[in-house]
Amino acid sequence: MRYFRLTAGFAIFLLCFCAMTASAQNPARATAELARRIVAFTGRRLPFHLTFTNRSSAGVAQVAALRRSLDRDLRAVGARLASATVAGSDVQVDVALSQTWRNLVLVAQMQRGKTSRVVIMPLPRFTPQSGEHDAAVVSLERQIVWRQHLPFVSFLLWQTPREKSSFLWVLEPYYLELYHLVQGQWHWQAGAYISHDRPLPRDVRGLLWIGPPGSQLHAALPGVDCSMPLVPARGGLPLSCHVAPGHSALFPILQAGAAAAEASLVPQRNYFAAATQLGRTRLQLRPFYSATIVDQDHAQPVLLAAATDGKTYLYNDAGKSEGTIDGWGSNIAGIKTACGSGWQVLATRPGDWTVVDSLAAYEIVDRNAVAIGEPIDFPGPVIGLSPAPDGRTADAVVLDRDAGLYEAYTISLSCGR
Amino acid sequence: MRPIRFLFLAAASLFLAGQLAAATRPRYGGTLHIETRARLALLDPAKLPAVPGQLALANQLLFLTGDRLVRFDSSGHLSPSLALHWRAAPGYRDWTFDLRPGVKFQDGKPMLAGDVVAALTPLHPLWHLRAVGLQLTILLPQPEPDLLLQLALPENSILRIGPNGLPIGTGPFRITRFTDNRITLVANNTAWQGRPFLNGVVIRMGRASREQWIDLELGRADLVQIPPDRVHRAHESHVRVWTSQPNQLVALVFDRRSSAAANASVRQALAGAVDRSALRDVLLQKQGEVARAILPSWLTGYSFLFTPSPGPATPAVPAPAADASLPKLSLAYDASDSLLASFAARIAVDARAVGLRLQLQPQPPAAVVTAPADVRLVRQPIESLDPAGALQQIVSALGLRGVVTLPASATPDRLYAAEKALLATHWLIPLVDLPEIYGLGSRVKDWMPSPVPLAGGWRLAQVWKEPE
Question: Mutating which of A33, A95, A102 best tests the B interface, going by the most B Cβ atoms within 10 A?
Answer without folding.
Answer: A102
